[in-house]
Amino acid sequence: MTQTTQSQPGIQMSEAALKHVLALREQQGTDLYLRVGVRQGGCSGMSYMMDFEDPQNVTEHDEVYDYDGFKVVCDRKSLLYLYGLMLDYSNALIGGGFQFTNPNATQTCGCGKSFGA
């Protein structure tokens, strides 16, 4: 298996997002990566997806980005839609949670979890 580790991440994370993901991973109790991708669906045609991934499931078709030892994985097909994405996190009571700022999106849904490109 060959992994590509980029020094300039195609998917960027704010410090708040990284801290929250690390806390969630700690609850899982294992050394997992974060997989970010897209799938068909959602209000605007495509929706974002995020889940933890076992490192053994990472393939040569994935791009791997390193954040001080924490790895973010994205398949190359999703990366076509996500390159330059900024993942942020907010603790706000209204509108809080993960927020996606995608420079490739031509339209976004009001919920911020789906987009069109």
TrEMBL record:
Gene Ontology biological process terms, A to Z: iron-sulfur cluster assembly
Listed Pfam families: Fe-S_biosyn
Question: What region holds the Core domain?
Answer: 11-113
Q: Which Gene3D superfamilies match?
A: HesB-like domain (2.60.300.12)
Q: Which PROSITE patterns does the UniProt entry name for this protein?
A: HESB
Q: Which domain of life is it from?
A: Bacteria
Name the Gene Ontology molecular function terms of this record: 2 iron, 2 sulfur cluster binding
Database matches in SUPFAM superfamilies: HesB-like domain
Entry's family note: Belongs to the HesB/IscA family. Ycf83 subfamily.
Q: What is this protein called?
A: Core domain-containing protein
Task: List the top taxonomic levels of the source.
Answer: Bacteria, Bacillati, Cyanobacteriota, Cyanophyceae, Nodosilineales
